[in-house]
Amino acid sequence: MPTADEDKRKAARETIDILHEISTLLYDSGQWMLTTFKNTNLDRHTLSYCVSLIENGVNPEALANVVVDLRAQSKRLQAEGANVT
Amino acid sequence: MAGTREERVNGALEHLLERLVPPQTAEEDEAAADQRWDEANELARNYLDAEPEPGVVEDVNHAADKIKRQLLADGNLEARTKFEGLYSRLLAQPVLGQKWAILYFLQKVAR
User: Which residue has the higher pLDDT, B102 or A7?
Assistant: First the structure.
């Protein structure tokens, strides 16, 4: 008989799976449209930290700005590295 | 969940930045990489402190409708149908308290 803790962990995993599918859906839709959505596809770990932040009261809009901005910076850094080599 | 809310937020934010901020590159010295990390931390703090409260209706159906409308606008009917199935499964999950905010976040990151 699974304990309450095991049930809760299972439910948490299932929820992250659902949210990851939604994230992938939005990413694929963006790729399909090439303009509307870009760069949504967060990996599970990144997504679970974002969920934890939001569940602890962080503003989803502000957090989205953090993620979009830092990913853009990361892309620029990779591009600069590619130009150097 | 251990610790105070602030400790949990600090911990999760640190982990998130570790995934979003690239490690030291071959062309970079340690000081430059450290500075990049500090700047990323400052950027994240500024965003979160500047907008502590969401500027939208805290309504899970509203957030879901925005995603459906966006998928419809793409003409991506298959994706929209799939989303509706995922959304009903999400509503049935007991563990999340801020479902509207997480859907809103995913939609905002996508834009």
Answer: B102
Predicted confidence at residue B92, as pLDDT, reads: 93
User: Considering just the CA atoms, what is the radius of gyration of chain B in Å?
Assistant: 18
**Chain A residue whose CA is closest to B108:** A64
Q: Which residues contact A80 (CB under 8 A, 6 or more apart)?
A: B27
Number of domains in chain A: 1
Kindly provide the b/e burial profile for residues B33-72, where b requires at least 16 CB atoms within 10 angstroms of the residue's own CB. eeebbeebeebbeebbeebeebebeeebeebbeebbebbe
Would you call A62 and B51 a contact, using CB atoms and an 8 Å cutoff?
Answer: yes
The overall pTM is greater than 0.80: yes
Full domain range(s) for residue A54: 4-84
Residue A84: predicted pLDDT:
56
Tell me what the mean pLDDT of segment B15-32 comes to. Answer: 91
In chain A, residues with a C-beta closer than 8 Å to the C-beta of B76 are: 29, 32-33
In this complex, how many residue pairs, one in chain A and one in chain B, have their CB atoms less than 8 Å apart? 171
pLDDT of residue B2: 64
Q: Which is it for the CA torsion B40, A71, B49, B102, positive or negative?
A: negative
Determine the distance in angstroms separating the CA of A1 from the nearest CA of chain B, rounded to an integer. 19
